[in-house]
């Protein structure tokens, strides 16, 4: 296993609390406020929990995390994600700063006070809500703080490697020693045991339907048992990789995931996979209106939904979401920046050729498989339906016109042309890779009007894929666990069935390593743009045999885009797909059937990671400067 070397330091005095707009009209609480919690006042307790829960999802980084990896590219040179993603980050120029202990310190102080005042809390909760209310409230209150603390540590562990492990109420400005990776992993495993054990068993599935629902206040970032469970499973996956893919850890993961899926499919929870219906759209639409002509579906719409679509999109697949205000959306996400330049956007973060190549064919086979039917001259034809809901590709339909990043000029009247703002080499606001996101952008509005009201942080498909990978490590593609009778390959196929894609090929089921690779590619297809790839690369880098080659490819090969010359003229080269013709659902399938010659990937940017076999970024220099305990990590 590789050892990560870095110089680490922390200056707690320099850590600032960020202000934010929340549903409550309050400012972030001062650290000292955590020493004066009134444990007889539910409102005061919840106020402190709200302060911890606000911004546990880093809204600024959520949509850019994959730009740190090989499947997306940060097109905006002013954002720190591009610095990290290309390997240019240094302590002096670290790019986006993920190194922050302010939430961790708040969680530590809250948990310390909770332990000291538990009996005071118990007395009034029992009186008001009874034994059942105390049983889950006494678990749920510390769960919120323990979850946020573990979330922060897992992110910093994956991004930075060894960091200080602060679990006590540490004075500001204190010099804190760096913990070994093993110490951090072991601590997180203990937290995962709590998430997958006590928290899972004591917190109801549907608390809102219980008689003591008032004991569980609403907050847009409140963590439920399923959100905690997915974080616990991610921690265990990292631990399994750290401990040389320990089969006992993988078995524990598989057993728990299997137990959860058994409950889900027995209708003992409010969650379920969507159903596929090929008579309407690529996926079963849960609403029917004018949006249909744009090819909208529950899959794509879940990422920009508002109003009625917030409840309709993705149905019961979202396990944990994070809601945000319009002002937060504008200042911290600015979804309009993801739109094509022709719509007033900036193509701020865009998919790469690697992501396009990760999507299988509609028959379920990877494009490099000779039996897949992939045709380089028709590279976007007959792909996994999720591709069309995720990626905006050359000559796909966008707002009733072709998306044309390969043409420098567009027709404008008879024998007249205008410059094309979407041309891949036109400006800083056009996509250099020739791809854009469909997943996050609403084709019914322009960039200036774009907004997002909810972020799906954890989704049910992740548990299916965690189950599949864990079972595969133990006993291959046919493995089962946790009383769940579905095999690993069948679990993957259930995700594919819901989107109308072919099943895993027999040759992939027969080879354990090939099947694990298949599951890992499935994670790219299912969660593209949702920020999971960096976590996967971090754990893969701990696997000398199976993972390091993946990481080496991701960090050393250049960012590539798509180039090609389109074959044919009208109507394929007209500004609109068909003159005086409204796009219909049937036309949606035609869009991928365009023919190219001279097709191929083209390098857009080189990468410069110091160690292209290990996924890590440097600690910011500000942390070095603030802490007198600077030293090396061997």
Strand content: 5-15%
Morphology: globular
Number of helices: 21
According to DSSP, the number of beta strands is 14
Major β-sheet annotation: 2 strands, antiparallel
SS content category: mainly alpha
Integer-rounded radius of gyration: 25 Å
Query: Helix coverage percent of residues?
Result: 25-40%
Question: What's the N-to-C terminus distance?
Answer: 14 Å
Weakly predicted, low-confidence segments: 1-26, 279-296, 306-312, 569-591
Mean pLDDT: 82
Strand order of the largest sheet: 1-14
Outline the fold blueprint.
Blueprint: E1 7-8, H1 42-53, H2 59-62, E2 72-74, H3 80-85, H4 102-116, H5 118-160, H6 181-202, H7 225-242, H8 247-265, H9 298-301, H10 308-312, E3 318-323, H11 326-333, E4 349-351, H12 353-358, H13 385-390, E5 391-392, E6 397-398, E7 401-402, E8 409-411, E9 417-419, E10 436-437, E11 454-459, H14 460-475, H15 488-497, H16 506-510, H17 512-527, H18 533-540, H19 548-556, E12 559-566, H20 585-590, E13 596-605, H21 621-626, E14 631-632
Antiparallel strand pairs: 1-14, 2-4, 3-11, 5-10, 6-7, 8-9, 12-13
Q: Could you characterize what this model shows?
A:
Strands 1-14 form a two-stranded antiparallel sheet. Strands 2-4 form a two-stranded antiparallel ribbon. The protein is mostly helical and 634 residues long. The chain has 21 helices and 14 strands. The protein is globular and about 80 Å long. α14 runs antiparallel to α17. Helix content is 38%, strand content 9%.
